[in-house]
Write a structure and sequence with these properties.
78 residues, two-stranded antiparallel sheet, 3 helices
């Protein structure tokens, strides 16, 4: 029996069966354009320029300023 909700065993197992597993984080790719910066990409694509260190880390960039046009970057999900 669920101590919180008072459900009996069949209700609990039925409840658990209808639950879905959490989805893995979605990774989107972005192709760098002339004049782009990680701050600008993060601001326009993932909700805030301050999230640029996450983009740098995800792409294993040693220097966040060293991106080049045509480079494909992975972007974390929102």
């Amino acid at each position: 029996m669920c101590r919180v909700h008072g459900w009996n065993a069949p209700s609990v197992s039925g409840h658990l069966e209808c639950q879905t597993a959490p989805k893995p984080p979605t990774v989107v790719t972005y192709t760098v354009k002339e004049g782009d910066s990680l701050w600008g990409i993060a601001a326009s694509k993932i909700g805030g320029g301050a999230r640029y260190p996450g983009v740098a880390k995800l792409n294993k960039l040693k220097d966040a300023h060293e991106i080049t046009p045509g480079q494909k970057l992975k972007l974390p999900s929102l």
